[in-house]
Design brief:
By secondary structure, this protein is an all-beta fold. The protein is about 0% helix and about 45% strand.
């Protein structure tokens, strides 16, 4: 007998996009989940796991540009949209959907059982 799990989406308001300066990231805690949320200079917002899978570097402190984040510990690069590593054999980052509303609030969506 196999178990069937029903996933549903839960939305979280992370606050104003203005809390993250363009070109930077910030760490957020949502339901015990640590996230790094990034705002590009083009005002696009991305959310990933908070630590690098290589050596657990704090990704929110990394440098972002050209759609990538660079881990501040060892320089590993990751695509912000997909989480895929760029130029190294590391595991991909977990990414999470986040949108900015018309009034400038960042809304994160998580799937829950």
């Amino acid at each position: 007998m196999s178990a069937t799990f029903i996933l549903h989406e839960v939305k979280y308001n992370l606050g104003s996009i203005e809390h993250i300066p363009p070109g930077e990231g910030r760490r957020y805690e949502v339901e015990g989940l640590s996230l790094a949320v990034f705002r590009t200079r083009e005002n696009r917002v991305f959310a990933t796991q908070a630590v690098c899978p290589h050596r657990e570097g704090p990704l929110a402190d990394g440098i972002i540009g050209a759609g990538k984040v660079i881990c501040p510990l060892h320089g590993y690069k990751f695509n912000l949209a997909t989480g895929e590593p760029v130029g190294h054999p590391c595991a991909a980052l977990k990414t999470y959907p986040v949108v900015v509303t018309s009034d400038g609030h960042m809304i994160l969506t998580l799937e829950r059982v």
